[in-house]
Write a structure and sequence with these properties.
Blueprint (H helix, E strand, L loop, with lengths): L8 H4 L2 H4 L8 H11 L4 H6 L2 H13 L6 H12 L2 H10 L6
Length: 98
C-alpha cells in the first residue's frame, strides 16, 4: 500500500513479532530434565545453578534417592507456569529453589 511519504511507526517493526506469543527457550527443557533426570541435578545445571545442582546430587546420595521428589516438583512447577513467569522467576531473578 502506498504511504505517500508517511511512515507508520508500527510498520517499521518486524511484522513477525507483532502477533506472536511470548515463548521461553528453556522452560520445556528444564521441566523435562527436572522430571526425568532430577536425581542428577540436570535441571539445575541446565539453568546455570551449579552449586544447587551439586547440592541436589549430594542430597540424593545421602537420602538414598528420596530427595528426587524435589526436582520432580520443580519440573512440574516449571511446566505449569507461564513462559513469562518462568523467565522472570528463574532466569532474570535467579530464584534457586521452588
Amino acid at each position: 500500500m502506498e504511504t505517500y511519504g508517511y511512515n507508520n511507526p508500527e510498520s517499521q517493526q518486524n511484522p513477525n513479532l507483532r502477533n506472536t506469543p511470548y515463548r521461553s527457550e528453556k522452560k520445556l527443557a528444564a521441566g523435562l530434565l527436572g522430571i526425568l533426570l532430577g536425581a542428577f541435578g540436570a535441571n539445575k545445571f541446565y539453568l546455570g545453578y551449579i552449586t544447587q545442582g551439586v547440592i541436589q546430587i549430594i542430597l540424593n546420595i545421602v537420602t538414598c534417592g528420596i530427595a528426587t521428589v524435589i526436582p520432580l516438583i520443580e519440573g512440574i512447577l516449571y511446566l505449569t507456569m507461564s513462559d513469562e513467569q518462568f523467565d522472570h522467576t528463574y532466569l532474570q531473578n535467579r530464584k534457586e529453589w521452588f
